[in-house]
Specification:
This protein is of the alpha+beta class and 261 residues long. It has 2 domains: 6-112, no CATH class; 120-247, Four Helix Bundle (Hemerythrin (Met), subunit A) (Up-down Bundle). It is 41% helix and 23% strand. It is built from 6 helices and 6 strands; from the N terminus they run αββββββααααα. It has helices at residues 6-16, 129-143, 147-165, 173-182, 193-210, 223-257; strands at residues 19-23, 31-35, 42-49, 64-71, 78-94, 97-112. A 6-stranded antiparallel β-sheet has the order 1-6-5-4-3-2. α3 (147-165) crosses α4. The two termini are 17 Å apart.
Length: 261
């Protein structure tokens, strides 16, 4: 994806989307002010997992996108939000020396549904019925404490996505994922490090479920293991199906506001 104009894009985001975080460092603190999507209270939402605060970006001039996993301290419900990060640089001159100060701002693009919300699977198109069915069975196993089964099914879902939907080539899931790193996929979308990193983890852990590891301590799967796989899979689904649509909408809004053809 190429931005029409990065400066125009940034202005559009600043004018139309809420800034949820501002700091002098790129790392995110333990909480951010906001409104809970569930109980509707204005609270300081706690960063539930630092796993998701790493900005992922490409070398093609795109802005940084950050997934944040939040917990409301009032109702204890959790959710993801997708944000875009902009950095402002300011030169400070003191005598004969100049140093730079940076301001990092995160703008909330949309909320990503978390586990337990019934419409998670609705983001997968009906035509991709095999993926929808496998994801539903993985979620069912997870909700019924069948953690090994859910791990295997999430891995199966990744292979359906990689091979049948994105068109990855090769006889193994490893080869299919490697192929997708350097080749144009069937959906013609940009696959970021979010996809590649999370897909590899799901593949490797799913393999542990299907083929018992020589390390006996890895034979059992905990609820936390299974929930983690669910969250990584959810992030992948939004990378593939939700974010491209959202970015296209943003581009169309920007073109319309700037009267571009």
């Amino acid at each position: 994806m190429e931005l029409l104009n990065q400066e125009e894009f940034e202005k559009h985001i600043r004018d139309n989307y809420e800034c949820v975080y501002e700091a002098s460092e790129s790392s995110i603190s333990q909480e951010i002010p906001g409104n809970c999507d569930y109980c509707k209270r204005d609270v300081f939402l706690k960063i539930y997992s630092k796993t998701y605060d790493k900005p992922y970006y490409s070398e093609e001039g795109l802005p940084r996108f950050v997934n944040i996993y939040l917990e409301c301290p009032s109702c204890r419900r959790k959710s993801f939000i997708q944000t875009v990060q902009f950095v402002e640089q300011k030169a400070i001159t003191e005598g004969n020396s100049t140093h730079y100060e940076y301001t990092y701002r995160l703008y909330k693009l949309y909320r990503i549904p978390a586990k337990g919300e019934g419409y998670i699977n609705e983001d997968i198109p009906k035509k991709h019925s095999s993926l929808k069915k496998t994801a539903s069975e993985a979620d069912y196993c997870l909700s019924n404490s069948k953690y090994i089964a859910s791990a295997i099914l999430y891995r199966r879902a990744i292979q359906i996505l990689a091979k049948d939907i994105l068109g990855g080539k090769g006889k193994t899931l490893f080869n299919q994922l490697e192929w997708l790193k350097t080749n144009k996929n069937l959906l013609e979308i940009d696959l970021t490090d979010v996809f590649h990193d999370n897909a590899k983890i799901i593949k490797d852990i799913g393999n542990q479920g299907a083929h018992p590891d020589t390390d006996i301590t890895l034979h059992e799967f905990t609820k936390e293991d299974a929930n983690g796989l669910h969250d990584l899979f959810l992030s992948i689904i939004h990378e593939v199906y939700v974010k491209p649509s959202k970015m296209k909408t943003l581009q169309e809004e920007l073109k319309k506001s700037r009267k571009l053809k």
